[in-house]
């Protein structure tokens, strides 16, 4: 057995797809027509089997865990004899570029808000916390987008601390995949949700490299449950390249797109560019900064070909 396997065996319960699907138990299979349309609108390739086998058991597990947390708050209220501030339950989702973090996050948002105990579920991506394009250019980080140094970590930890503190309204910055830059015209207001899902490749990272005296709380200090979406690098590169080709016909064709010049490429040229971006940016970032954080997660979802989940690891 290799080291990764033995570490995983020590830390996690392991389920194959069939074993995990059985844990759905009493969660109703039937989603309303609107919920189904919502889910499929997110991604037409998403199969109903994936929702029922993988995401419904996960939604059941999270509901039980959140319920326990809400009971703990109730006990604390009684003990302290006053109401503690409304503090949202925070779920993080991390993993490589193109693994499907935002798709997973949106499926979970839809499923979790069906439970009466936590109807308001907000979703924030850490893309908005990338430094604005002008700053990245000035700092020479244009080929390091997605690396730890390309994010405003101070802004991100302040944001998550303010949400956790139960502030009435906290503003999240938004990112545009069209202009490849932070949006200067609009923010996302977060107003005391029951659950906040925070999605991004950096959410399990720590500041361990900095001097001990200057270490600040990390995002993970505020997170109640963390999920890592995993897949072999060969699949990730393939999904990244497929999406790049789709963008070329969609977002890149927009004259405002930072990558408008890509829309005129032939398939072969586009494939070569996408492969190069993977090999020089997203692949190295995965190996250096993302994969090493995997075993910190409470749950690891592993995908095989066609985005089908084939293994689930749940922290003991
Ligand atoms: N469950 C799924 N079934 C089928 N296709 C999927 C699934 N999840 C994601 N995809 C496809 O994989 C690609 C990447 O998905 P997504 O944009 O969700 O990834 P991401 O991890 O959020 O990426 P990034 O870090 O670049 O924002 C997209 O083309 C998406 O359509
Ligand atoms: C915005 C990030 C960093 C993360 O979602 C990523 O999609 C990205 O832009 N990476 C840089 C290289 C690339 O264009 O894929």
TrEMBL record:
<comment type="similarity">
    <text>Belongs to the prokaryotic pantothenate kinase family.</text>
</comment>
<feature type="binding site">
    <location>
        <begin position="95"/>
        <end position="102"/>
    </location>
    <ligand>
        <name>ATP</name>
    </ligand>
</feature>
<keyword id="KW-0067">ATP-binding</keyword>
<dbReference type="Pfam" id="PF00485">
    <property type="entry name" value="PRK"/>
</dbReference>
<feature type="domain" description="Phosphoribulokinase/uridine kinase">
    <location>
        <begin position="90"/>
        <end position="243"/>
    </location>
</feature>
<dbReference type="GO" id="GO:0005524">
    <property type="term" value="F:ATP binding"/>
</dbReference>
<dbReference type="GO" id="GO:0004594">
    <property type="term" value="F:pantothenate kinase activity"/>
</dbReference>
<keyword id="KW-0963">Cytoplasm</keyword>
<dbReference type="InterPro" id="IPR006083">
    <property type="entry name" value="PRK/URK"/>
</dbReference>
<dbReference type="InterPro" id="IPR004566">
    <property type="entry name" value="PanK"/>
</dbReference>
<keyword id="KW-0173">Coenzyme A biosynthesis</keyword>
<comment type="pathway">
    <text>Cofactor biosynthesis; coenzyme A biosynthesis; CoA from (R)-pantothenate: step 1/5.</text>
</comment>
<keyword id="KW-0808">Transferase</keyword>
<keyword id="KW-0418">Kinase</keyword>
<dbReference type="InterPro" id="IPR027417">
    <property type="entry name" value="P-loop_NTPase"/>
</dbReference>
<keyword id="KW-0547">Nucleotide-binding</keyword>
<dbReference type="GO" id="GO:0005737">
    <property type="term" value="C:cytoplasm"/>
</dbReference>
<protein>
    <recommendedName>
        <fullName>Pantothenate kinase</fullName>
        <ecNumber>2.7.1.33</ecNumber>
    </recommendedName>
</protein>
<dbReference type="GO" id="GO:0015937">
    <property type="term" value="P:coenzyme A biosynthetic process"/>
</dbReference>
């Amino acid at each position: 057995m290799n080291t990764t396997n033995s570490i995983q065996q020590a830390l996690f319960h392991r389920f194959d797809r069939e074993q995990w699907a059985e844990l759905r138990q009493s969660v109703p299979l039937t989603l309303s027509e609107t919920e189904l349309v919502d889910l499929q609108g997110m991604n037409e390739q998403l199969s109903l089997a994936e929702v029922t086998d993988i995401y419904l058991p996960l939604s059941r597990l999270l509901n039980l865990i959140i319920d326990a947390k809400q009971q703990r708050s109730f006990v604390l209220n009684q003990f302290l004899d006053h109401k503690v501030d409304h503090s949202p339950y925070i779920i993080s989702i991390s993993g490589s570029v193109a693994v499907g973090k935002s798709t997973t996050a949106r499926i979970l948002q839809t499923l979790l808000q069906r439970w009466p105990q936590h109807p308001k579920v907000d979703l924030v991506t850490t893309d908005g916390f990338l430094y604005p394009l002008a700053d990245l250019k000035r700092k020479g980080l244009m080929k390091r987008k997605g690396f730890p140094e390309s994010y405003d970590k101070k802004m991100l930890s302040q944001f998550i601390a303010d949400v956790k503190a139960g502030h009435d309204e906290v503003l999240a910055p938004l990112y545009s995949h069209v202009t490849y830059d932070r949006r200067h015209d609009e923010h996302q207001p977060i107003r005391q949700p029951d659950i906040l899902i925070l999605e991004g490749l950096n959410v399990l990272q720590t500041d361990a490299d900095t001097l001990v005296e200057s270490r600040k709380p990390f995002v993970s200090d505020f997170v109640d449950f963390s999920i890592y979406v995993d897949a072999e690098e060969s699949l990730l590169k393939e999904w990244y390249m497929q999406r790049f080709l789709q963008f070329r016909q969609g977002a890149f064709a927009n004259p405002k797109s930072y990558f408008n010049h890509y829309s005129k490429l032939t398939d072969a040229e586009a494939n070569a560019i996408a492969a190069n971006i993977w090999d020089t940016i997203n692949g190295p970032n995965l190996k250096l900064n993302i994969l090493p954080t995997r075993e910190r997660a409470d749950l690891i979802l592993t995908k095989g070909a066609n985005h089908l989940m084939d293994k689930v690891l749940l922290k003991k």
